[in-house]
Amino acid sequence: MKKKSLLNLVLLVISNASVLLAQAQPANTESESTKFQDYFYESLKQKGIENYDKAIVSLKQCLKIAPENATVHFELGKNYLALKQYRDAYFSFEQAAKIDPTNKWFFVGMYDVDYATKDFRNGIITVNKLITFDPKFKEDLTSLYMNTEQFDKALALINELNETVGSTDRRDNYKMQILSQPKYQSSEIENLEALIAKYPKEEANYTALIYLYSKVDDIAKVEATVKKLEKEIPESEWAQVSLFKMYLDQNNGPKVVKAVHTVLASMQIDNKIKHRIMNEFLLYVDKNTQYSAELDKAIDYFDHDKEINVAFEIGKFYHNKKEWAKAIAMYEKAKSKSEVAQVDVNILLLQAYTENKEFKKVMETAEELLSLFPSQPQFYYYAGLGYNQLTQFKKAKDVLESGIDFLIDNKPLEVNFNIQLGEAYNGLGDLKKKEFYFNKANELLKK
Question: Which whole number is the average pLDDT over 306-312?
Answer without folding.
Answer: 86
